[in-house]
Amino acid sequence: MSQKKTELLHQQYLKKLSRERKTVRVYQLLIFIAFFSLWEISSQQKWIDPLLFSSPSKIWNMLIEKTMDGSLAVNLGVTLAETVLGFILGTLVGTLLAALLWWSPMLSKILDPYLVILNSMPKVALGPILIVALGTNMSSIIAMGAIISVIITTIVVYTAFKEVDPNYLKVLQTFGATRAQSFKEAILPASFPTIISTLKVNVGLSWVGVIVGEFLVSARGLGYMIIYGFQVFNFTLVFLSLLVIAVFATVMYQLVELLEKKLIKSNQ
C-alpha cells in the first residue's frame, strides 16, 4: 500500500472519529435540554408538585440570589476544601497501606479478613464515632471523606500490585535489585492505570463522605444547605445544592481524567 493511500485512510479515520465525537456531544446536549425543558414545563403545568420538585427557573433565580449575596461561594468553598482534602488523604493512606501489604506478605495474610470486614461495613455509620473522637469541626468531616475511600483504595491498589507480572520482578532481582527498587521500577509504574481508576472512584466517594459528614455536624457547606432546605421545606435550595455538587464532582472527575492522559503520555 502506497504512503499516499495510507495517509488518506488515516485522514478518513480521523474524520470519522471527529464526526462520532460531534454526534455524541449533540445527543448529550439534546438530552440535557430535553430534561430541563420537560422539568420546567411539568412544574409550570403542575404535572408535578412545584413545591416538592421546584423548577429550573426557580433554581436559576436562587443561584443568582445566592451568588450575589456570597453565601453560595462560602458554602461551596467549605465543601470543596473538605472534599479535596478527604480525597487526597483517603487515596494517599489507601495507597500507602497497599504498599505496606505488598511489602510484607505476612502482614497481608494477617490483615486480609479485617480488610474484608471493614470494606463490607457501611462507613457512614462511623460518622457519629468520628464526631465524638475528633469533635464537631472540619476535621471530622475530612475524616469522613477519607475513611469512606481508604479501604477500597487499599484493596484495589494492593490487588493491582500483586497482579504485576512476576517475571518483571525476577529480571530485576537477577540484576540485584532490592525490594524497594523493584517496587519503584516495576510495581508502582505498572499499577498506575489501576491507581488512576481508583482516583476516579474516590472522587464520588469523597463527595458522599463529606456531604454525609456535613449532614451530621456542619453549620456550613453544601451538605448543610441541603439539610437546611429540608428543614424549612425549601426544595429549590436542595436542588440548587445537588446541582452544584453534580457540576463540581464532574469537574473533579475531568481533572483526574486529564491527569490520567498526562501520565499515560509521559510513560509512552
TrEMBL record:
It is found in: Cell membrane. Gene3D superfamilies: MetI-like. Keywords: Cell membrane, Membrane, Transmembrane, Transmembrane helix, Transport. Residues 72-256 form the ABC transmembrane type-1 domain. PANTHER family: ABC TRANSPORTER PERMEASE, ALKANE SULFONATE ABC TRANSPORTER-RELATED, MEMBRANE SUBUNIT. The keyword Membrane applies. It is a multi-pass membrane protein. Its main location: membrane. It holds the Pfam family BPD_transp_1. It comes from Mesobacillus jeotgali. The chain crosses the membrane at residues 24-42, 84-103, 115-135, 141-161, 205-227, 233-256. PROSITE patterns: ABC_TM1. This is ABC transporter permease. CDD domains: TM_PBP2 (cd06261). Belongs to the binding-protein-dependent transport system permease family.
